[in-house]
Amino acid sequence: MKLIVVDGQGGGMGKAIVTQMRKAFPESEILAVGTNSIATSAMMKAGATAGATGENAVVCNCANAGPEDYILGAQGICLVDAMMGEISPAIAAAVSRSRAKKLLLPMRACGVHVMGVAEQPLSSYLTEMAACVAAKAW
User: Fold this and answer.
1) d(CA 14, CA 29)
2) CA–CA separation, 27 vs 15, rounded Å?
3) Residue 47 zone, left/alpha/beta (φ > 0; ψ -120 to 50; rest)
4) Nearest partner of 103 among 127, 77, 129, judged by Cα
5) How far, in Å, CA of 20 to CA of 14, rounded?
6) What CA–CA distance (Å, rounded) separates 108 from 125?
7) Over its length of 138 residues, how does the chain's per-residue pLDDT go in tens digits?
8) 72 touches 3 (CB < 8 A)
């Protein structure tokens, strides 16, 4: 099982996800895939196993992920032009089309409100994300 964390901008969300996943799964392979080098660097400092940067890195890692793997990030990683334009059509399509399970954090910053999802602190979402991976729940 690979945990592929996708983030952009300053990498703060990805850093928080990597930190939580490393704590919950200390032996897991966690791949930090940033849309820019700042995001990748933040995730690497948080304890990711390996990192890659750019559109092609996101596309390749999502394509190589299998059904036993997870893509983790904010919901914007599958929305074209999200994260102030850092999410290209190719990135959004790669995340959406990947065979990996996707655990996405609902963030209103992308201009999307997911109905039926109660707003919670980030720490609650991260705890739930780790629980889903641990239970292999989908």
Assistant:
1) 15
2) 17
3) left
4) 129
5) 10
6) 14
7) 999 999 999 999 999 999 999 999 999 999 999 999 999 999 999 999 999 999 999 999 999 999 999 999 999 999 999 999 999 999 999 999 999 999 999 987 777 888 888 889 999 999 999 999 999 866
8) yes
Helix (H) / strand (E) element for 36: namely none
Q: What is the 3-state secondary structure (H, E, C) of 59-97?
A: HHHHHHCCCCCEEEEEHHHHCCCHHHHCCCHHHHHHHHH
DSSP single-letter state for residue 54? S
CB 42 within 8 A of CB 5: no
Taking the whole predicted model, whether its pTM rises above 0.85 is answered as: yes
Distance (Å, whole) CA 70 – CA 134: 11
